[in-house]
From TrEMBL:
CDD domains the UniProt entry points to: PBP2_Bug_TTT
Annotated TM spans: none
UniProt family annotation: Belongs to the UPF0065 (bug) family.
Protein name in UniProt: Tripartite tricarboxylate transporter substrate binding protein
Matches recorded under InterPro entries: BUG (IPR005064), Bug_dom1 (IPR042100)
Length: 308
């Protein structure tokens, strides 16, 4: 009796805990956004959403893990342009297709970044940094913990004609710490990991990567207005599932991502963490990801970066 009810009950989503995989370490911008979103989904959908960090291989380790997972909605990916826009330009062998192997659920936000330096370094402005690098070719290092930092750093080197040594990290938090302690002179850092150190005076902000100044740090100049006209680069973040994710699961998740992003207190909390809230629904987000793949691949080639 009542057997006709069973399929509907079986399809109720979610009926057990959900894992949100993050391709970067704890404390990164992506990790912060994922944990805030997970807390909202916990409450809204009545199941635990657990964030699992799988850093390594430029984010491709985590992305490939989710691409190969069952498309049932219980393994998701909160990721960025690093895995879905830049990876194919930075690496020779990427084990997944960012468009065909995933279901785009929703865009969550943007991660602005900036050039920062240890305050004890002799350069106090971005113009000073460029002048110092030109006078001391190959002696200055810059760190980065994601693709945005690498692409921005290499593009800046090419545009300004400076020779600076790149120091890659698995994620931004340890790189920011090394700049604060003087182990590395400068880096390209996202706002999320850099802002606490900036506010404490442990690192100095020199310039933001976006063409317009940030409302979070309005006194910090842009690269566009100083040493690199027309420079404009910003990272994005969004939620994905494996390819062929059921439509009802996609809509359930997208609806709650929209509710999360549009809630004023969440937007304020995201901004306090250096994240700009920005929602796109599934179809629009899918098209956006396709456009960004072309944009970032082109930018990587123009920066002279050879796939590794």
């Amino acid at each position: 009796m009542f057997g006709w009810l069973q399929p509907a009950v079986a399809q109720t989503y979610p009926s057990r805990p959900v894992t949100i995989v993050v391709p970067f370490g704890a404390g990164s911008a992506t990790d912060s956004a994922a944990r805030m979103l997970a807390a909202h989904l916990d409450s809204a959908l009545g199941q635990r959403f657990v964030v699992e960090n799988k850093a390594g291989a430029g984010g491709t380790l985590a992305a490939n893990f989710v691409a190969r997972a069952e498309p049932d909605g219980y393994t998701l990916l909160l990721t960025t342009n690093t895995t879905h826009s830049a990876a194919h330009g930075l690496f020779k062998n990427v084990p997944y297709d960012p468009l065909k192997d995933f279901t785009a659920v929703a865009r969550v936000g943007s991660f602005p970044s900036m050039v920062v330096a240890n305050p004890n370094e002799p350069f106090k402005t971005i113009q000073d940094l460029v002048a110092y690098a030109k006078a001391n070719p190959g002696k200055l290092e810059y760190a980065h913990g994601n693709s945005t930092g690498q692409v921005a750093g290499e593009t800046l080197k090419r545009r300004t004609g400076i020779e600076v040594v790149r120091v890659p990290y698995r994620s931004n938090p340890p790189a920011v710490l090394d700049v604060a302690t003087g182990r590395v002179a400068t880096m390209i850092a996202d706002f999320t990991t850099a802002l606490p150190q900036v506010r404490d005076g442990k690192i100095r902000p020199l310039a933001v990567l976006t063409k317009t100044r940030s409302s979070i740090l309005p006194d910090v100049v842009t690269l566009h207005e100083t040493v690199a006209p027309e420079f404009d680069l910003i990272a994005w973040a969004g939620l994905f599932g494996p390819a062929n994710l059921p439509g009802d699961v996609v809509q359930t998740l997208a609806k709650e991502v929209k509710a999360f992003v549009e809630k004023p207190e969440n937007r304020a909390k995201l901004e306090a963490n250096g994240i700009e809230a920005f929602y796109l629904p599934p179809a629009e987000f899918k098209a956006y990801v396709a456009d960004e793949l072309v944009k970032w691949t082109t930018a990587i080639k123009e920066a002279g970066i050879e796939p590794q």
